Inverse folding.
């Protein structure tokens, strides 16, 4: 009986430690600053791809041509 009690207490202590570790990991993952930094990094990585850069440059050039044509008319 005493062995069972000690085993149960050890199991409870281990469960508490595991829960504390899990909560710490969740706190790190749910940190708003980290989430914002990750989103910014992903957005910059996508924006720096050649397809996006050249596409944006093409759209910008097209808008510039349209504006100049409207001004000259």
């Amino acid at each position: 009986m005493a062995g069972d009690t000690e085993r149960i207490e050890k199991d409870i202590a281990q469960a508490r430690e595991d829960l504390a570790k899990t909560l710490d990991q969740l706190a790190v993952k749910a940190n708003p600053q980290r989430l914002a930094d990750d989103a910014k990094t992903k957005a910059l990585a996508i924006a720096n791809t050649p397809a996006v850069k050249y596409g944006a440059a093409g759209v910008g050039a097209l808008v510039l041509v349209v504006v100049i044509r409207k001004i000259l008319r």
Notes: The CA atoms of residues 13 and 31 lie 27 Å apart. The two ends are 97 Å apart (CA to CA).
